[in-house]
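Entry 14. Structure prediction run on the chain below.
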Amino acid sequence: MHTLDRWVNAAGGIVRHAEESATDPWNGHDTLVIIATIIGIALVVVLIVWAKFHAFLALTIASLFVGLVSGISVEKVTGSYETGVGGVLGYVGVLIALGAILGKLLADSGGADQVVDTLLRGRPATLPWKMALIAGIIGIPMFFEIGLVLLIPVVMLAVSRSNSKAMRLGIPALAGLSVLHGFIPPHPGPLAAIGVLGANVGTTLAFGLIVAIPTVIIAGPLFGQLAARMVPVGAGGAAIAVTGGGGSGKEPEKVEAENLSTTTTLAQDPGATRRPSFTWTLVTILSPVVLMLAKAAADLWVPDGSVLRQVLDFIGDPVTALLIAVLLAMVTFGTAVGFSLPALGKKVGESLLPIVGVVFIVGAGGGFKQVLVDGGAGTAIAKIAVATSLSVVLLGWIIAVLIRLATGSATVATVTAAGIIAPLAADLGPAHLALLVLAVGAGSLFFSHVNDAGFWLVKEYFGLTVGQTIKTWSIMETLISVVGFLMVLLLWAFTG
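Output returned:
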């Protein structure tokens, strides 16, 4: 049996027990575990924001605290935490690693540059839409921060060439990256929520794409027009942030254009003697998405036990789909562009180093979730939900919003909120489980502000003030959260 299946089945007994207890009278233990949960979340916030602890340590400490206060015995509390960590990382960690390898090869081969150069051709009026499309394509295999660093020089070069405002093109690119980060596997947040809630990756991906398209349109090109009027900055400040600026004595426009052109060409690794073609770049990037969607379609329309169903189930499994994409990338983004096999091996190793922190945060979030469930917090929250008649989808979004505002981390918000509401998801069907993942993902993007590293990345790269960053980036993130959640509600009603 698959690792995730074993973990979900093990957790299922606890979840079903919690759900069966949701209509029982409120008792003292329920009060205790709710207080412990609130204090535990507050402890995570304090340790991350004030004490500057790494999120992995903060979540681990809070997990043990909540477990002990909730009544889990001393000899079992660490076991509960370890079960949660292992259950999530046994599945999600592999996908994060494969996604990181694919993103690294895409960047170093010049494939990302090829996508950008191809899509930037044409009329200037289409540039905001093209920037959102570029961000969406590049953002599929890349973490938000990596995609942002890669795209900023491209955005500012396009701003310089078109004599446009930075926010007119910057907001669409940021929206494309952020939506992919919050809604679409194989990004860590959605994958973690899928693992915690036991949702289907293919179904979540299919619904995620449906939610993502209108959300990007509204929060990207459309809001970008308004943001450009509210914060009418050009390329100058951002060019200095990207290139280091400075003191050359040349006219600002010339310095800006020269620096951005140089910065853009540096994305390709010197070991690559040529770029992959645009067609092969798209085929490689989109191959795991197509395979996972094919499996989701097979679940609906292909009979169980048929040879076709078995083949699609295998190649459409996220691990297999991403592995196929990585192997294809080692050719299209590797040997075909001039990299030797030893160089490819080195790049694979390099791609894994930056994700260690993310992987362990996701794992610790799974541990925190398991302690909350084993300690009875899920049952108590289920009772509150029954008493207040709050739907599980609304509760998931609200909890993720509150944790996002407190910690600044979308990933922490996603895994924690998913763990808290997991007992309420026991009887949901595959479609509603996938939509619950997306609701939590939408909540995790709400109003990024000064406690979020992404806030400061955007501020510095675009050369904005704190106030300007709030007017643009923070409002854009809030739009993504609200519009995405409204789309989830529509789909929830439609599939109900």
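Confidence is low (pLDDT under 50) at residues 1-20, 238-266.
Filed with the rest of this week's runs.
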